[in-house]
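INTERNAL AUDIT FORM
Audit reference: QA-55
Scope: verify that the stored structure record matches its stored sequence.
Auditor: D.O.
Record contents follow.
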Amino acid sequence: MRMETDLNSYIVSYINSKTKAAPLVVFRILFGLVMCFSMIRFWLNGWIEELYINPSFLFKYDGFEWVQVLGNGTYLLFFICGLSALFVAIGFKYRIAITVFFLSFLYIELLDKTNYLNHYYFISVVSFILIWLPAHCNSSIDSSRNPIIKASYISRWQIDILKLMLAIVYIYAGLAKLNYDWMIRAMPLTIWLPTKVHIPIIGALLDQKWMHYAFSWGGAIYDLSIVFFLLWKRTRGAAFMLVIMFHVLTAVLFPIGMFPYIMIFSTLIFFSSSLHANVLQSISRALPSALVYIDNGKSYMSKNNKLFLIFLGVFMMFQVALPLRYLTHDGNVFWHERGYRYAWRVMLMEKTGYANFRIVDTVSQKRFYVRNDDFLTARQEKEMATQPDFILQYAKYLGKHFSSQGHKNLAVYVESYVSLNGRKSQPFVNPEVNLINVDYTTLCNNFLIPLDE
């Protein structure tokens, strides 16, 4: 009974505990600036047209088939997303801005499953969390205009929840690496690293087998331990230097966009609130007066503080559970990919293959083969050939397309072979199954051919 009382007392004390708002304020500013830059980068590289406007077919997430490209209006969508990110950074109409950013970014993410990346999902989750946090309570245009919301203290959990999200990412990424291919075969790094031998200084080492194992084991140890070193004050500085080294090296070796830089600025949240406050005050002379951090000793007051805590607590429980859903499916998750997405499985496989689709008239038995490049971009075709849900969605699209052209009694079959992490190419989808009749949510036993280990 006493232990239960002590636990309840601790929970109540934690919920009511306060800390300086500076870490959340810094996170808001950096998040907004990096996201704004990302939208500009996407636009200037021509990726809006290349990835969304030009393709004649887009792979949809289940339940989000209604999310459609807006034609040239897609540029407006990216502009709104980038502008709202800038408003988040400066704290102008923050609640509206972060909500608009979340919705517009999520809409972009849902346009084509081909473009799924772990850090896109991370951005969506973090921006959703930020909607419920008072990140505009200081160093913002909102707080300069409205003294009521200006505060230098917030609830401790409002910073800890971001730390928890980062812990989920790192720890699950580390646990996902504890598999046979990564630890015992050093795959897929054994395939990838030798292609980087041209890199100065370290390039000559990247062809060495021991280096492949060093990167594999080092990556797993890093992911599993870095959060704990960041939480401990004595090791925090060294751990952050390791974060910088790890992610800069990742950016040099692999073209994964903004992810390394997002993770670097995000881990600043682990540093003390006093350090963040000192940094903000030290750069105050370079900032407009509205963005100067002021330590007024006030705590941010919200009538919905406990309600938000409960809501986000349930949300974070969902984030903890979601990566584990692969356990409900038999077989190799890298092969069937059931439960692969949203599970922080970062760069764990090299999967190559091809898929040759056959359209058959089931009455006359007449048949013809499909040229995939008539419907898909090169990137879409590459992704489609190795992912079961892509293959099935594309097959159903082909069935509807050719039915609309007057073909009748159609069946769609695929001849496909896939290589996983350096294994010999193997049959992937049962070529005798009419894909039009397959429901992917049940994953029929005769749809995929099991991986021969």
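Auditor finding: record pair retrieved intact. The radius of gyration is 25 Å.
Action required: none
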